[in-house]
Amino acid sequence: MDPAGPEEAVAASAARNRNWGRWGDDDVLGTLNFIDDAKRAHAARLVRRGAAFSLSQRFDMNGPQKGWRRRTNPVHTMLDTGVDAALGNQGFPHGIGGADDVIAMPLQCSTQWDGLGHIFDHGRAWNGRPAEKVVTSEGDQVTGIETAAAAITGRGVLLDVGRALGTDGELPDGFAITTEHLAATIARQGGTARVGRGDIVCVRTGQLTRARRDGWGDYAGGAAPGLSFTTADWLHDTEIAAVATDTWGFEVRPNEFDHAFQPLHQVAIPNIGLFIGEMWDLDALAADCASDGVYEFQLVAAPLPITGAVGSPVNPIALK
Asked: Which PANTHER family does the record match to this protein (predicted)?
């Protein structure tokens, strides 16, 4: 891989891993097509103890965003409160009162999915469609996140690379996770960590653990451990349905090429058709997996069906 040649590397990887037409010209789900009824039923049978883990960060003003690309932390405002009720300001009969609130936030400011309309490759969206005919000022007219509202539930697999290869469970910023690192983690974790068709793979780097301890710093867009660009073939060949990490941007930062920005996104989303989750909180789940040695679970991670959105907040639930 030539660090000075991102254009050539992206083009070669995209051509090698492109899934355009694989599920028909009208497809809007990409690799989520790998999750069928049988796989969802199998995932449900993985629940043995009934233990549940939320894999979401909090949605509040104390989040990681600092305004880059106009991404801010959520602003939560109360419309009606208990004070209004106590003072009789609400005008309701027979003493009933209530509270209401509103939130304003970018859809990708905390734990979220990247939808298939989020990234383009040379003006082409998923399945080879012209980007300008997919996402307009009215939103994603073809692959809006609402099309995946019922699709992202199945067998989840945790690959705790931070615990397997890092120091005190954390990989340093700039650590590029290769296919060999993923294989070594699977081997260390055992049979329940096998990865295959239709799985939703969660990769823990430990960066979120560090950010919680030391402060957000440059978590949103700064240096981070993450998947190497060279894992594009693995992401394609394993036929996984989706992948998520505990980092802001999924892939290693700084990126591995000179003068490049998120090249793995450029291959994974518009060419492979892969859904990418970012800023997932995998720590409690990872501790449980390390304790009982079981790294597979039922994962329910439905996006909000926001019509035309290219991404969505999510509260993923892992059930063991």
From this structure: CYCLASE (PTHR34861:SF10), PTHR34861
Residues 6+ apart with CB under 8 A from 207: 162, 170, 171, 173, 219, 224, 225, 246, 247
Closest CA to 255 of 220, 222, 210, 280: 222
The SS3 assignment for 137 reads coil
**pLDDT (tens place) for every residue of the chain, 320 residues total:** 899 999 999 999 999 999 999 999 999 999 999 999 999 999 999 999 999 999 999 999 999 999 988 999 999 999 999 999 999 999 999 999 999 999 999 999 999 999 999 999 999 999 999 999 999 999 999 999 999 999 999 999 999 999 999 999 999 999 999 999 999 999 999 999 999 999 999 999 999 999 999 999 999 999 999 999 999 999 999 999 999 999 999 999 999 999 999 999 999 999 999 999 999 999 999 999 999 999 999 999 999 999 999 999 999 999 99
Distance CA 206, CA 161 (A): 8
Nearest to 203 by CA among 138, 286, 114, 313: 286
| pTM attached to this predicted model | 0.97
CA distance 311 to 107: 6
Residue 304 DSSP symbol: P
Q: In this structure, what is the dihedral angle of CA atoms 232, 237, 241, 243, given to the nearest 10 degrees?
A: -30
Where are the chain's structural domains? Answer: 6-68+107-319, 75-104
DSSP state string for 168-224: TTBPPTT-EE-HHHHHHHHHHH-GGG---TT-EEEEE-SHHHHHHHH--TTTTTS-B
